[in-house]
What we know:
Layout: H1 2-8, E1 17-18, E2 21-22, H2 24-34, E3 38-41, H3 55-68, E4 71-75, E5 97-102, E6 114-117, H4 123-133, H5 139-151, H6 153-176, E7 189-193, H7 200-209, E8 215-216, E9 230-234, H8 241-256
Parallel strand pairs: 3-4, 4-5
Antiparallel strand pairs: 1-2, 5-6, 7-9, 8-9
Amino acid sequence: MKTLANLLNLRLEPVPIDREGLIPEAFEAACRKSNPRALYCIPTLHNPTNATLPDGRRRRIAAIARSYGVAVVEDDIHGLLPAETPRPIGHYVPELSYYIASLSKTVAGGLRVAFLIAPEHAVEPIAQAVGATVWLASPITTEIAATWISDGTADRTLAGKRREATARQRIARALLGRFGLRSHPASYHAWIELPPPWRTNAFVETARRCGVVIAPADLFAVGHDAAPNAVRISLSAAPNRDLLTHALTAIASLLARSPAPGRAVV
Ligand SMILES: Cc1ncc(COP(=O)(O)O)c(C=O)c1O
């Protein structure tokens, strides 16, 4: 979204979140202050914090969007991973909702076919935008997606991905649980606020020197305020569970010790 906003010259403003995700009062304050055109959000398994918005908050966010006339772009990229999820925000405000889901996280990374539910009046302009940019969805991948959905392959693959995610989350919890890991049994990633005196950049760099690549919080942050002192750890990138265990063990031992003291700068 940050890259896209840059490309399209859109101004992004952050809205504060807590452990349950987007804070409705903060969204309303942003509506009052900035008169935004749209809200972009990931209500289920938020990337990077794993927060999932409860139903009550989804209803309140929908009501605020309606009263300020703000479109809701709802990225449900991980929506099929948990066995159960609350209804999308768009369910409560369909006239302003752009609900997007794709198969790349739930079926196959290379199967880049997405689905969009948009308000009736927006369908024609969206079709024109698709025509003007990519012309049409790739017919071969769309055919594969349609076949896999109708013959059950997509459901079986999703079930396998859920099982693997749960197994990997168990490993993460066993090794990193004591450091306040924020995770979900069906998520592909974990979020950790770093214990002091670790600072995000030093931690990411030290992990990289140990051969483990993790993402600093500021990669996901927008606005001028400091990003939280935290990192996102992807559990899906390691080709197998043994390698994941090895990498997370390295992370755990870094978390358990302080950064090496550097030379003082005065
Ligand atoms: C939150 C989020 N939304 C959307 C996407 C893009 O999905 P696709 O590869 O299907 O375009 C990603 C991919 O990493 C993502 O993390």
